[in-house]
Amino acid sequence: MSGIVIIGGGIQGLSIAFNLARLGAGNIRVLDAGYFQGGASGRNGTLIRGGFGSPEWTSLFAHSNRLWADLSATLGENVMFTPRGYLIIAQSPAMMARLEGMVSLHRAHGLDAVLLTPAEVKALEPAIAAAGILGAIHLRDGGVAPHHAAMKAYLAASRRLGVTVEYGRPVTAIEQVGGLICAVMTGDERIACETLVIAAGAYSVDVGALAGIEVPGFPMRIEAMALEPVRPILRSAIALPDRLCYLHQTARGEIVGGAEVAERPQVTLRSDIAALAATARAYAEVFPCLASLRILRQWAGMLHATQDWGPLIGRHPDLANLWLSAGWSYGFAGAPAAGDLLARAILRDDLDARLKPFAVDRFRRGAPVREGSIVLAPVE
Amino acid sequence: MALHRAGERALSCTRKRHRPLGLSGSFIQGVMARVDGVPNVRLDQCQARPGMVAERQNSWPSPRADLLKLFRLVPARWVRGGFEHTRLFPSGTRRFLWWERLLAFLAGEGRLDPAPPPSAIQPGRHHACDLLVVGGGPAGIAAANHAAKTGRTVVLATRGERLARGATAMGEIVTPIDPSVTVLTSHEVGALYRGGTLAVAAPHDDGPATVIACAQLTLATGKRSLPPLVPGNALPGVMDATTALALAARGSKALGPTLVVGTDARDRVATRLRAQGVDLVDCRPVAELKAVRGSKGVTGADCNGERIACASIVHAGPWRTDPNLAFQAGSAGELRLAAGEPAAQVTLAGFAAAPDEAVHWSGIADEATDICPCMDVTAAEIADLVRGGITHVEELKRQSACGMGPCQGFPCWELMNAVRAGVGGPHLAADRPSHRGPRRALTVAQAAGLSDVVEPLR
Ligand SMILES: Cc1cc2nc3c(=O)[nH]c(=O)nc-3n(C[C@H](O)[C@H](O)[C@H](O)COP(=O)(O)OP(=O)(O)OC[C@H]3O[C@@H](n4cnc5c(N)ncnc54)[C@H](O)[C@@H]3O)c2cc1C
Predict the structure, then answer these.
(1) Ligand 1 mean position, distance from CA A134 (Å)
(2) Residue A364: inside a domain
(3) How many CB pairs under 8 A join A and B?
(4) Using CA atoms, how far apart are residues B237 and B313, in angstroms rounded to an integer?
(5) What is the pLDDT of residues A261-302, one digit of tens each?
(6) Is A36 in Cβ contact with B451 (below 8 Å)?
(7) Domains of chain B, start order
(8) What average pLDDT does the segment B129-156 reach?
(9) CB of B450 within 8 Å of any CB in chain A?
(10) Does a cis peptide bond (omega within 30 degrees of 0) precede residue B61?
């Protein structure tokens, strides 16, 4: 009996697999080319928020944020999601004006969002240098979840429901008959399938090419670094959009985060000194006490960038049994919602309104999603 | 060094179980303390000054009355990697929030002052040269001198406060450095970028970091002796030959009765220690050492059934090259960074270029044999993971947190691989998780100063 094949065992692939199995689908197979947690899902900043600058992003991510809050119970494992709050801090009048406009949007989507004055930000985060801060949005249900806990939980829960998840199994060919996908090849093995889902992260463009389709966007690296552990000094998950910087302190005491620099998109897992210096500069200026800490390690992960930075979720317009969950830049935060809504779309043919704006063919139709609060460098 | 000589051997403790750690030359956690209010300072890299206050970290309520030592009673199995996502405290419940707070408190070693005195960002420096030599031993000096003679511009960076520290400690005569070579002493090169053509070096104090653009790179970083893979191997008093020689040079009494274990070159180290007045009780092949005895520090050793009383165990082998910089210069891969062919302009020189010696492991997966004591990873944990089917080095690292402490992978991944190969059979390649810079080599302030020095890739 042929079933559902998912290409990619990152958090997207695992969340889709788990949700499909939970809705009763059988014979689900996840194939991943690398090792467990080797993709962006094991290399990210682990920040989770529901509120963004656009209604499209906010409605999808607010749903995801709510699912994160109960995810341990849902999966029967401990994902360690901690609602320590998420601060988006403005350092320029333009950003402050944008944040002021976002609060009502966030509240309308059921998020517990408040606007904070610099003094209130300082009270919440005593380590911050209040000079130069104009205010912040405080998303009180936002937070972080360590990716090692979340990934292990998704993997264990999926396997418990009978999903087969294999690492070290690259998909090398995709077969079609009559406008439908019928099988994939991994090594010498041919696996027949009724439905194929591409959730291959940065490699989704290449995997799409195997099926003869064009997946919009391109791969690029982004980088992060960890400072040596200290006793709790930062409470919230923090974004500094003016500095293209984000950070938080993990339950292991390390300060983990990164700042983006505008560079020619790089397809490599090597890290670069420009990102290291930019991150350190933002930390030292905004959180002066971090200046004396030493940098333990820096690393890079690969993202699938799209023209509007938004994900590509849904059915492919040209192949009726091919689905995608790709193009993610906030795919860690978005995974619970994407898995939940996409599984329903695949099994029940019920495409939720929250997924519709992120349709795979939106660029073809000239309908990108405009979103102004994400922390990523413009691509040159 | 001064503290160790004063008889203070347990300077620090392990992350989870608070077992004592000291000056070992192997595990950095053992020498980290809060110095004059700054957390995580390496005691072996700071000069003792009158009035300096060094406090033990990771203690509560105070370094003297430290209740956290009670964690030594917790069985090692309970705190294996991943223990923190126990189902007993799932997120979404109130008890998780307390659990997370407890974890964060225990994990954060040092205490940071949220309102420190303003520390100015140090503007970084930039050097361009034909050749960068990393390592100031005889091989590094020879490589630098050779290039300088042919008219090339050379920078030599070494972590030593002067050139050829180790060779001098061994009593060797050292060639002077060519005066045209730019020498950066007390500088750690922790990160290489862009295929080894850009290096970052920073001084151990808070002086400015330097970016060195080089056409060629020579790694003359020598080798380090790995601690023996036996129970008790992380006890204060177990140290590598380099550390022992440095201590002995400052006064032979600090070591007490000393046992030397090691590979072929161990006799040279033993002879040198004896010449410096160290009370040498024996010198044995490392494979004969079965266990280190002691609870707060070394009191003896078991060698092939024989009990040897001693206060220090000095290991002189197996010697291995820290693969970090060569890895950073040559690694490649899209799904994973793995060791690649070193780029053509990168060479290893001297002892670093010699073949690595094998790590001896008895095959007994003991909870008292440390692989990565900073993070409390034991041979038993690694062996159980491998037997349970987790054999990929990256997964072993993520699962156990081996190498995630201050040393960032050396010597811990070498020891991890010895156990992995010993359990899984010899067919497993000597492969390591990705080495990542800058491995504590620079502070945030130093790195911040580099933002005007390098252009992003455009
Ligand atoms: C440094 C960094 C920081 C980030 N910070 C955040 C953050 O704070 N919050 C947030 O929400 N997001 C963040 N992200 C983004 C987030 O990590 C990603 O959007 C998310 O992990 C994507 O998940 P995924 O499952 O789609 O991709 P991945 O985790 O990359 O998984 C894709 C998988 O596909 C596999 N694959 C590739 N080709 C094939 C093939 N041919 N056959 C089979 N398998 C294949 C790969 O091996 C890989 O495991 C960050 C990313 C990075 C790199």
Answers:
(1) 33
(2) no
(3) 254
(4) 6
(5) 999 999 999 999 999 999 999 999 999 999 999 999 999 999
(6) no
(7) 2-107 (no CATH), 125-224+322-353+440-449 (3.50.50.60), 228-317 (3.50.50.60), 370-428 (1.10.10.1100)
(8) 97
(9) yes
(10) yes
